[in-house]
Amino acid sequence: MRYRKGNSLAEGKTKIIWKVQGKPDLVIIESKNAITKFDDPSKTKKFATKAVCSTTTTCRVFELLKKAGIPVAYLEQISDTEFLAQRCTMIPLEVVARRFACGGFLKRHPEIMFTEGQAPSRFHRLLIEFFLKTTKGKLIVQGKTLVDGLDAKKKEEDPFIENPYSENWKLLNSKKPSWDLQVDLKRTIKASLILQNRSHETIGKMENILREVFLVLEGAWNILGFHLIDIKIEFGIARGSNRFLLADVLDSDSWRLQNEEWEELSKEAFRQNEALSKVEQNYGLVASLTKQFRVPKQALVLWRGSPKDKFLDIKAPFSKSRGVDIIEVTLSGHKKTRQCLDKLNEILRDYPDGGVIVAKIGRSNGLAPMLAAHSSWQVIAIPATMEKSPEDIWSSIRMPSLVPLVTAWPEKNALLAAMNILAAKNPLLYMWRQKQIEELDI
């Protein structure tokens, strides 16, 4: 092994964090075979593949997030049960993103009706919540006790932060509705003590990163036919560089994940007393599926019949970092039909993950219909002369049978449609596009 373990820095029920000999800014995170329930040690169980499944899932997830440009502490997997990460001072917060109303949210909002067996209510815009991370009813930071006396029997641990953007955080029972007389834990804590004197913009950064994390993973799971219900993440400050990073682990203990029949595949099934053998099977399935996470190699083809038909500059959202190559073609469908078909076949050969063809054509659109008739890729026509000669659009919308040409105008609308089509198979582009959509409702 290139990295040798030093002394352990910390050990919990599900993992051990080790120092790395000669590398003070690095750690090795080793998973254990334990699975926990309700922070009750008496309910902790073990199964033989837990550590392997957790490490596999975490590493494949972090590798996808790194491709999305999300700042993570993860560096590389070094064994079946271990990975290397930047050493961080953890911020004692659990930050949760919810796409569906489930779990503790329903306890705080009993007005949202949910019947067992029904699909849960969906939030159009991701719901973000902050919780203070405590241990045995207290929180100690740098040797100073900031919170104490929370009663585990009353479900007071890991309290809900009413307004994380305020200077003083009011702590609430995370399992009780706002109108309950026992919801107020009669405790407040200064945000600066938790954020390690970093600016209040840190909360906004956490929220923004979490939105991107969730949307990338939602896109990846959607491609495979699964529902990402919610996710819980933690952040840290990297030792040495002082960078703000997504840290800890991200595995089946960190989210609720359900299949197309809304059956639970994550730790929630263990909480609901599913047989341990079935839980182990689910963890193995999820770990194997994360090996399929990838950024596809797609093409956005900007095809014009004449050099006069110039496209807008759209390279930023379609950068290669999101797996999309922009291919510019200038060939007339009327005058160079054979060359057009040869070029089309060349593109189809090189991009098995597919793509979209946007054709910007002026008078008598013969190019886009010809491309649409010879490809299963979506072809979108932009009538370049629409404003001056609106009658030209008819050659783009009156199509014969088996020629599925879509016509869009203005050009920006056509390009947004192309993004949506590509995003259906591309988790990074899905994140970028879905985030835009949800920000319309701010």
Structure explained in plain terms:
The chain is of the alpha+beta class and 442 residues long. It folds into three domains: 179 residues, Phosphorylase Kinase, domain 1 (2-Layer Sandwich), CATH 3.30.200; 101 residues, no CATH class; 128 residues, Rossmann fold, CATH 3.40.50. 28% of the residues lie in helices and 29% in strands. Strands 8, 9, 10, 16, 17 and 18 form a six-stranded antiparallel β-sheet that branches. A hairpin with a 6-residue loop joins β13 and β14. The longest helix is centred in the middle third of the chain and has 24 residues. The chain is elongated.
Number of strands: 23
Number of domains: 3
Rough outline: elongated
Q: What's the CATH architecture of the largest domain?
A: 2-Layer Sandwich
| CATH class category of the largest domain | Alpha Beta
**Rg:** 26 Å
Please describe the biggest sheet, giving its number of strands, its sense, and whether it closes into a barrel. 6 strands, antiparallel
CATH fold-type name of the largest domain: Phosphorylase Kinase, domain 1
Distance between the termini: 49 Å
**Overall average residue pLDDT:** 92
The CATH homologous superfamily name of the largest domain equals Phosphorylase Kinase, domain 1
| Count of runs of 4 or more consecutive helical residues | 11
Question: Which residues sit in consecutive blocks of at least 5 with pLDDT less than 50?
Answer: none
Name the assembly state. single chain
Residue share in helix: 25-40%
